[in-house]
Amino acid sequence: xxxxxxxxxxxxxxxxxxxxxxxxxxxxxxxxxxxxxxxxxxxxxxxxxxxxxxxxxxxxxxxxxxxxxxxxxxxxxxxxxxxxxxxxxxxxxxxxxxxxxxxxxxxxxxxxxxxxxxxxxxxxxxxxxxxxxxxxxxxxxxxxxxxxxxxxxxx
Length: 155
Known about the structure:
Number of domains: 1
Radius of gyration: 14 Å
């Protein structure tokens, strides 16, 4: 499966980017290793259930999410979405390959400060074999409406 059509259409209309093909991987950390890119520069998306709806948290592949910190910033009713919920929201993506772009999927977004400081950003394309490369400015355009905060720790 190539890059998710919803994502590709949105990227084409919004930013300049480069696509990098790689051997299939099953995690953003493995993708970073396969592409010889620092895990701090690979943005991953984590789908959250919040107040009866959903939102997307964006963080580096080398970090893990602290739900307690997110709850302090967003409210108590924040939890991880199930795989089935994620599959319905990202129906044109392969399972486990959530792109860290929420707007084109109708989701509010919160970005961890640690990804914002990276000069180069890489992200999954909605499949397990494509990495999308953007400069910091281009990534900022994708997340211009997002909330920002600190809710992760390095693995």
